[in-house]
Amino acid sequence: MIEIRIVLGDITVLDCDCIVNAANPTLLGGGGVDGAIHQAAGRGLLEECRTLGGCRTGEAKLTKGYALKAKYVIHTVGPIYGRTTRDEELLRDCYVHSLDLAKSKGIRSIAFPAISTGVYGYPAEKAVKTAVAAVRDWSERNGEYAVTVIFCCFDRKTYRLYRAECGVGQE
């Protein structure tokens, strides 16, 4: 059973078991949410990421949370929009593989940013639909597993899109 929450704010300060990093393939930090997570977590995160050998688009890898409130960080690499005909499938895989990894570690609360919607250029409207559908489909296949999924939105536009897609009225 899944509970979906939508919040507006900074994913690095959320009090949950795990946050998801919209990483680049090196896993060594970057801009946007990736840079913010690396900065907030501290040097230990970068050192652990160096041992992981990177990550392919659509896949997910787990590290400790270090200085974050979250015990874990799941790093996933979203697609750069328009580079392949498989954009939607790869974005969906980011959510599914992250949730599969969370379940395998007994994680009960996980926060996602809007993966690929920053410098990777994925249109927020399409990304939100894919994210919500992927989480709902995963929940149907894993109905016995209780988890809280938090969609953490950096801006009001994305926050409104998630609320609309999840059928939550405007604030």
Taking the alpha carbons of the first and last residues, their distance comes to: 25 Å
Please identify the top-level CATH class: Alpha Beta
What topology, given as strand order, has the largest sheet?
1-6-5-2-4-3
Q: Mean of residue pLDDT?
A: 96
The backbone outline, from C-alpha atoms, is: globular
Identify the CATH architecture.
3-Layer(aba) Sandwich
Q: Enumerate how many helices there are, as a single number.
A: 5
Q: How many extended strands?
A: 6
Element-by-element helix/strand order: EEHHEEHEHEH
Can you tell me the number of structural domains?
A: 1
Helix content: 25-40%
The CATH superfamily is known as Leucine Aminopeptidase, subunit E, domain 1
Radius of gyration: 15 Å
Q: How does the major sheet shape up? A: 6 strands, mixed
| SS content category | alpha/beta
Descriptive labels:
171 residues, alpha/beta, Leucine Aminopeptidase, subunit E, domain 1, 6-stranded mixed β-sheet
